[in-house]
Amino acid sequence: MRIDMADTHDFARGAAFLGTGGGGDPYIGRLLLQQALRKSPAARVLSVDELDDDALVVPIAGMGAPTVIVEKIVGFGEGERALRALERRLGRKATAIMSAEIGGLNALYPVAIATHLGLPVVDADGMGRAFPELQMVSFNIFGQSSAPMAMADEHGDVVLIESDNNLRVERLARPLIVPMGGLCMLALYPMSGRAVKQCAIRDTLSLALGIGRAIGNARAEQRDPFESLFAHLRTTEYYRHCRLLFDGKIVDLKRETLRGWAIGHAIIERFADGQRLEVTFRNEYLRARSDGRTLAIVPDLISILDRETAEPITTEGLKYGQRVRVVGASVPPIMRSERALEVWGPRAFGFDEPFVAIEESA
Amino acid sequence: MRIDMADTHDFARGAAFLGTGGGGDPYIGRLLLQQALRKSPAARVLSVDELDDDALVVPIAGMGAPTVIVEKIVGFGEGERALRALERRLGRKATAIMSAEIGGLNALYPVAIATHLGLPVVDADGMGRAFPELQMVSFNIFGQSSAPMAMADEHGDVVLIESDNNLRVERLARPLIVPMGGLCMLALYPMSGRAVKQCAIRDTLSLALGIGRAIGNARAEQRDPFESLFAHLRTTEYYRHCRLLFDGKIVDLKRETLRGWAIGHAIIERFADGQRLEVTFRNEYLRARSDGRTLAIVPDLISILDRETAEPITTEGLKYGQRVRVVGASVPPIMRSERALEVWGPRAFGFDEPFVAIEESA
């Protein structure tokens, strides 16, 4: 598979949908990908099965508050410094790059920097969506170590963290976000090709591209982009349980940048009957709740889209008065196992309720 | 020079005096030094002139809040992990250990761990006292880089920071103190013997031992320990301007652990006339002020000592009702240069007043 200049808008749109509000602004990621593709005609995407067992695969990701990502443009320097610091520590060069999360900037940046550096990128990630913490990743669930992990900021500073506990890596890294200017790039979870085959969420770059295309093509052909989106999601193995959760206008919005996260909620009022939906977020949309009932909750996907164009809206793109549709979709079974829900289920985010699959909450 | 078991109490006491309230509890440091000396009969102390120009000298220091240091006992593991991580990064073994600050734990720990590891320790430090931030050190003033710097905690986690800006290293390291449990050990400012000759504050281990002995011997011989202390300080080149600033009882005490520091003030009431002295601290005692007049201010030394025994009292050892004497002493001219005062003078601590030398404020 290849991703070329003609794919960039669709890929960014699909990544924004899977980012469920977070993952960092896909606009910046798209610009970086386009910049890389001006020098190199296409990104080389390897399927998981094409990886050598002994390949060294390095996920690269941004860490920080989405509110900062839209104001502070990240470049290739930060990602390259993080990668080089990790390679130096490992005494070995990366043979392929991977996304840690297939959401927003974090879906696009790895493809962009791999192309910039002349490396292939793996068609997979560790979340099948976006999540706000470093241990919320399938690599962790399958016992891979996030460390050694390198963090690089735009000042040229690099921090290398070593720990055998992925939750501690998150706790050590998080307070560094503020002195690193609200955003930094990470190289983490260095893995063999063998490990990637065991623990990655497969084919998610392809899925993002397909989702973005379903919306984009419908618009170009003046068909309903939501119908096209749902029809396409139903053809995928991962996201096939999907539905419109709500249709209305944003009437209240609370958003704070706290400890390097964008934390808050949006209240959406339905046109038909004035009924309200509350969407809670921490970088990502985590729970959609109306009339005392949860309609969708992590790890299932909640995306807020422009009501006309079906363009996904990130948490920092939300505005008072915006007319939106809220869409929910399932995640693959690998992401709903008991062990997985301990890491990224409702209780991991402080919600005092169990996970209920979206296909069962209708 | 050697430091052996018979010296440990005097050395710890002198280090506590030069620690001016901070530098970490010398009691813990003394226990560690005694532990090391039970296996190895004496610590091997090299004068700066004995260093090879090409020696690799590594300062080791604790970073954290003194309030934590008294409750969480640090061991050799943390310091050794920090040192090994730095050595691995540099691709070279340390040939000698040094103190970054000749105060409290940070004076004693390097001697203890050097002895534990079979390495010599240099008779010098980077402050001639203690200070609460990593860039407040003569190595920085003379242009040495604090990075690469390794930090290790008791969980086994290690963080390596790379930056060409020493103030940024401080800003990156400080927020890590909390997830590292309030205290961690650092290996930083790796330097050649040549660089140490240029920028270290020399002979401060010997000075600490001499100060502690002056107090200890007077007590043993039932002489006035304060007279003995002053008489001894006047024989030293560095601390020869010294005097009693205040004699009274602690009547108010405010102490908080904020962002990994112990921050607050003590109010001392004079027995004779009820006049009050305010001593402001951030880990270390920074300013002594009475009746609208500053009696002593950083970088000059302010120590609070038990009124009978002249035992130095750290910020975390202060208690309401304690009867104390407050002593001030000069620091060497190298520490009062314009460039040095920019780094550790009153304004570096947020005081809106210039430095006035203690010999001029009487």
**CA gyration radius of chain A, whole angstroms:** 19 Å
CATH class of the largest domain in chain A: Alpha Beta
Q: Shape of chain A, please?
A: globular
Number of helices of chain A: 11
Estimate nothing, just give the exact number of structural domains of chain A. 2
Question: Biggest protein-protein interface?
Answer: A-B, 21 and 21 residues
Q: Note the main sheet of chain A.
A: 7 strands, antiparallel
Q: Could you name the key traits of this structure?
A:
homodimer, 362 residues, alpha+beta, CV3147-like fold, CV3147-like, 7-stranded antiparallel β-sheet, 6-stranded mixed β-sheet, 31% helix, globular
Description:
Two copies of one chain form a homodimer. In chain A, the strands form four sheets. The first copy, chain A, has a seven-stranded antiparallel β-sheet. In chain A, strands 3, 4, 7, 8, 9 and 10 form a six-stranded mixed β-sheet that branches. Chain A is globular and about 60 Å long. Chain A has helices at residues 8-18, 26-39, 66-69, 76-90, 105-117, 138-141, 166-173, 193-199, 204-220, 225-235, 338-344, and strands at 2-4, 42-46, 56-64, 96-99, 121-122, 124-125, 149-152, 158-162, 183-187, 191-192, 201-202, 242-258, 261-270, 276-282, 284-290, 293-297, 301-306, 323-329. In chain A, a hairpin with a 1-residue loop joins β14 (276-282) and β15. The longest helix of chain A is centred in the middle third of the chain and has 17 residues, at 204-220. Chain A has two domains: 2-204, CV3147-like domain (CV3147-like fold); 237-360, CV3147-like. Chain A has 362 residues and is α+β, with helices and mostly antiparallel strands. Chain A binds chain B through residues 85, 155-165, 168, 171-172, 174-176, 178-180, and chain B through 85, 155-165, 168, 171-172, 174-176, 178-180. β8 of chain A pairs antiparallel with β8 (158-162) of chain B.
